[in-house]
Amino acid sequence: MLTLRTTLRPALTCCFNETSRPTAIQKGAAPLFSRPPQHRGAMPKRDKTVGGKPKPPESVPSPVTRGKSGTVSIAVHAKPGSKQNAITDVSPEAVGVAIAAPPTDGEANAELVRFLSKVLNVKKSDLCLDKGSRSREKVISMSGSMSPEEVLEKLKNAAT
């Protein structure tokens, strides 16, 4: 930092910082080129309203959701290579499904769709592997008239 003395005002120091922006500093006074003070968290945040109505409460996270196109999406954590097909757990993130097929050539994916169609009592053609064909984290989309709550209830019943 360079310091230069000027003769315009007594005890005025003009400094050039690394960005080559001059700032003036006078002892005991505020700098000449200062910014207005910023308030950090002085006021508490209010709940925002839309159209005069309070914001609806956030829903509880669920592995089963309804998409914009009307399909029901199921988040699945697949566990291929098990001894038998079973729903192991239903967590807020995903439904754990043990699959009795090896994870090669899409065999586990086909078995997963077949098993879920049996558990949910829907046709295999109503279920489709939407995401995660080569991953353990998968998303199955289901077309039909079943609500996400009904799907979640059937999955929880099959898990016990």
From TrEMBL:
Pfam families: DUF167
Recorded coiled-coil stretches: none
Recorded GO CC terms: cytoplasm
Chain spans, region Disordered: 29-68
PANTHER family: UPF0235 PROTEIN C15ORF40
HAMAP family xrefs: UPF0235 (MF_00634)
Protein family according to the UniProt entry: Belongs to the UPF0235 family.
Protein name (database record): Uncharacterized protein
Species this chain originates from: Denticeps clupeoides
